[in-house]
Amino acid sequence: MVCRAIVLGITAVAVAWAQTPASSTTIADQKDVAVTAYNNGLALVRDTRAVKLPSGESMLQFEDVAQQIRPETVGLKSKSAEGSIAILEQNYEYDLISPNKLMEKYVGKKVKLQNFNSELTSGTVEAELLSMNEGPIYKVNNEIFLGYPGNVVLPEIPENLIAKPSLIWTLNNTAADQTLEVTYLTNGVSWSADYVITLAKAETSLGVAGWVTMNNQSGATFTNAQLKLVAGEVNIAPPSQPQMEMMFAAKAMPAAAPPMPQEEAFAEYHLYTMPRRTTIKQNQSKQLALLNGENVKCGKKYEYRGQEYFYSQQVPPTGEEHVGVYLEFRNEEKNGLGVPLPAGVMRVYQEDSEGMLQFAGEDRIKHTPKDENVRLRLGEAFDVIGERVQKEYQVIGTNVHESAYEITLRNHKETDITVDVVEPMPGDWRILEKSHEFVKEDARTAVFSIPVPKDGEVKLTYRVQVRY
Q1: Is the predicted pLDDT of residue 92 greater than 90, yes or no?
Q2: pLDDT, position 239
């Protein structure tokens, strides 16, 4: 297979630069960078660079911006001489150099083929690139060649192609040495919270370790960046109105670095300032410590749940069903936490008889403010069985149904437990008979809390009338 190579020369970025004083800045000029990441894959970037600019009107090419930048959100200001610079025109150039794009720009033009088919000729020959449709087609000495009969040599880079995504401004400047801060929103930077829950053997307390998982697919690397995270559902306006979002988010100023991230209320959300600067590479997943909690009091709940349709028709016996297991704790300061918990996945681990941590289940939480409860579904209890039998069913009037149920709970564990039988009841309902007391949790739910002794069995019976 013949190798394909492209030899490139370097030219100016735009013809206009030949007539207007021009400068460029790369990441090498960067003095600071800060990233504020949101839950929806959006990030606010603040890029500060030292730049030398000529006085008066000139052009500035600002390179090394994120490829997923939202150009309509870009802002530029001088941090060293306020009011000394004005933007006359702004462009975002993203038609990047690639082998295919270079070749497409030379369709119908002359190129050179190096190391051409040695059986015909040697050295370099001139060719006309006729087409790039499904592969290159060349005309050499009135003959047509398909594919790559040699290494392609192009005389120069076309003027409308650039090596990196760049912001290009026409500026009016009154200060030579500038410290410029460029702010913009970019897609492709996301974060999520992950939690490691260590449940004590007694199942009455737990430890919480929260981690932030960052993913960067924005097309840029943010080196030694100050990182802030916004937890909450930020509304994204139509593309014509993103500047308000950017300016609003830019008010979140850096805070002193504590041992753990500093949390603060921000607008209707919560802002976490990471204590250490970090480098977020392109196409990298990174984890950072978010919070810790120890000796958090908790409780394990067992729940056997019914269905609304059970009360409007005849229902066959359910057979043996495993009871759901839940872990609950309160997110408050006196319980070892008391900080807003960003949405994420909580994974629960517990020691076995040899002291080794084993995975015990996971569940996803929503954004949880302080002083609220956290409830995690861990799975189904192996040793706790529920069985439901509809003993009677009749329609006693227009849209009035009456049912009688017997629910058997069996506990094969070595400890006594309590099982909550949760019955979602539609319409207007009345429990006419019952073997155990219940709590009306809300207008549509009755909860029977049934103590079940170890290696024991308990039957719950009740009759209910439902009017639709």
Answers
A1: no
A2: 54
263: which strand partners?
272
Asked if residue 452 belongs to a domain, the reply is yes
Residue 86 and residue 147 in one domain: no
- In degrees and rounded to multiples of 5, residue 309 shows phi and psi of -70, -10
Residue 395 has pLDDT above 90, yes or no: yes
Structural domain boundaries, residue 4: 1-97+157-187+222-280
CATH code, domain with 397: 2.60.40
- Per-residue pLDDT, averaged over 176-189, amounts to 93
Helical H segments across 87-184, by residue range: 99-105
Amino acid found at 185: L
Mean local confidence (pLDDT), 248-263 = 46
How close are the terminal C-alpha atoms of the chain, in Å? 77
Whether 288 maps to a domain, the answer reads no
CA dihedral 162, 163, 169, 173 (to 10 degrees): -130
Please determine, for residue 121, whether its predicted confidence score (pLDDT) is greater than 90.
no
**How many domains does one find in the chain?**
3
Rounded to whole angstroms, how far apart are CA atoms 148 and 125?
Answer: 13
Long-range contacts of the stretch 99-107 (C-beta < 8 A, 24+) = 99/4, 99/6, 100/132, 101/161, 102/6, 102/8, 102/154, 102/157, 102/158, 102/161, 103/129, 103/132, 103/136, 103/152, 104/132, 105/158, 105/160, 105/161, 106/154, 106/158, 107/131, 107/132
- Residue 386 is predicted with a pLDDT of 97
pTM of the full predicted structure? 0.70
- 111 and 179 within one domain: no
Give the pLDDT confidence score for residue 176 in this predicted structure. 80
Q: For the chain, what's the residue count? A: 468
Domain for residue 366, yes or no?
no
Residues forming a β-bridge with 48 = 32, 181
User: Phi, psi (5° rounding) for residue 124?
Assistant: -115, 135
Confirm whether 212 is domain-assigned: no
Task: Give me the residue label for tokens 């009135």.
Answer: 142
pLDDT band at residue 96 under the 50/70/90 scheme: low
Calculate mean pLDDT across residues 217-237.
Answer: 89
